[in-house]
Amino acid sequence: MTVGVQHLKSFDYLPDECQQMQEICDRISRVYSSRLEESVQRFLESLVQLKRDYLTALEEKVLSLLELETGG
């Protein structure tokens, strides 16, 4: 799963917001795999669909845990 900057521009993000969202998407792309449990895949997919350029504290913790667990 990859998300390009062209997709982010459709949300009318400012350049800094685009950069922050791209970083989040890059992190998600590194951990996303078809080998993950379906619920985990759906969680990651839902993060990409957020219309904000940041993660909540809980979302950040869960993504960090997934990065640690998957080596991403």
Short description:
The chain is mostly helical and 72 residues long.
Structure description:
The chain has one domain. With 72 residues, the protein is mainly alpha-helical. The radius of gyration is 12 Å and the shape is elongated. Residues 2-9 have low confidence and may be disordered. Helix 2 packs across helix 4 (57-70). It has helices spanning 5-9, 15-31, 38-48, 57-70. It has four helices and no strands.
Categorize the overall geometry.
elongated
Task: Report the uncertain regions.
Answer: 2-9
Helical fraction equals 55-70%
User: Whole-number average pLDDT?
Assistant: 83
Find the structural class using helix and strand composition: mainly alpha
Series of secondary-structure elements, N-terminal to C-terminal: HHHH
Strand content: under 5%
Quaternary state, please? Answer: single chain
Layout of secondary structure:
Blueprint: H1 5-9, H2 15-31, H3 38-48, H4 57-70
Helix pairs in contact: 2-4
Keyword list:
single chain; 72 residues; mainly alpha; 4 helices; disordered N terminus
